[in-house]
Amino acid sequence: MERRSETTDYRAPAVVVEDVHMGYTVRTSKPKGRSLPARVLNRLNLGTMEKVEALRGVSLMARQGEFIGVIGANGSGKSTLLRLIAGVERPDHGIILAQRQPTLLGVNAALQPALSGAANVRLGCLAMGMTPEQAESVKNEVVRLSALGDAINRPMGGYSSGMSSRLRFAIAVAARPKILLIDEALSTGDATFAARSEEAMNAMLSEAGTVFLVNHAAKVIQEMCDRAIWMHDGKVIMDGDAEEVAEKYRWWSWNVAQGELVTAQKLLEDAVEKGEMQEVRVVDDLALKDTDPRHARRGRTEVEEYRRPQTTWPGLDVPVERTFETDMLPVVTDVRLEQVPQPRRARDVLRN
Ligand SMILES: Nc1ncnc2c1ncn2[C@@H]1O[C@H](COP(=O)(O)OP(=O)(O)OP(=O)(O)O)[C@@H](O)[C@H]1O
């Protein structure tokens, strides 16, 4: 396999994730042993608390203009990773830096089911931070991209989930975010929308935007992305060319579905052995030294990138592939969510 270090990529970083861990404490009804207190809890059916490790040391660097697919089994940590990059939640441990505030599709533009698709376009654009004039100027383009036809004038509450996803996607892309995170299936069944969404995505990428796309279908990742990350059990187990990573994932998941668990396990081990892992280290970051990231100054950030063969990680010392000096800010938790208008206010905004 060709090592990516042989084709060094000099595009500047857009997102840096360094050794991120995230756990959730959840109530479980699993019986907790045979001791007296455990037996009492079991009998009362009260359950106990359990820690779920959603992310266990994830590191990666996304560059400007990269389209990265994120694949993996249910519960492998894909959505958690995107939520943390978006700043919706804060990691337990680790650093997340971004060149701009990332936009998580579906979260940033809270749409109203009682309003028509067209009215939601305006509302969504305003919620994404556009001025009323900007919202007006992109309206027709959003409607065209959503490919909803006459349905655009009907209340969104009556849309199928695929139709709502299209509208949210069209709004998010119209806002020309520098970093777009998509955590849902983009309908590929409809040729019109598939073609238009690809066209819109390409336009965004050509402006050096960065896109992360979570999708269970290896085919979608292969068709749309140039790089893919395979997550398993809270870790990145393979990171590289989308075609190659998605093919390995497809073969693994087919075997799991067929109940061929021994073969699936071998494929997983093979992916880990042959794959590479990107490691990054934030060497120096002026903004991080500020106590409140919301008011942090943009400063020089020095990031080192490593590519290590998985098998030798974490033992072997691999030379630093590249040191970037760039200006990035820690991702700010909930910055966009605070701007999402409430229903009453949403109508006021539309009347203006
Ligand atoms: N808010 C939460 N509270 C408790 N546990 C959570 C929460 N969010 C995620 N988890 C747990 O973290 C793990 C990773 O979940 P996550 O949703 O990130 O996986 P995923 O790869 O996106 O899964 P899927 O493909 O099913 O969407 C799972 O075990 C999940 O149950």
TrEMBL record:
- What EC number(s) is this enzyme filed under? 3.6.3.40
Q: Which SMART domains match?
A: AAA
Domain ABC transporter positions: 38-258
Highest taxon in the source lineage: Bacteria
In the record, what terms sit under GO molecular function? ABC-type transporter activity; ATP binding; ATP hydrolysis activity
Keyword Secreted in the entry? The reply is: no
InterPro entries for the chain: AAA+_ATPase, ABC_transporter-like_ATP-bd, ABC_transporter-like_CS, ABC_transpr_TagH-like, Bact_Polysacc_Export_ATP-bd, P-loop_NTPase
Q: Which UniProt keywords apply?
A: ATP-binding, Hydrolase, Nucleotide-binding, Transport
A Gene Ontology term for the protein's cellular component: membrane
Cross-referenced Pfam families: ABC_tran
The entry sums up its family as follows: Belongs to the ABC transporter superfamily.
The record ties this protein, via PANTHER family, to: TEICHOIC ACIDS EXPORT ATP-BINDING PROTEIN TAGH
The protein's name is Teichoic acid transport system ATP-binding protein
**Source organism of the structure:** Brevibacterium jeotgali
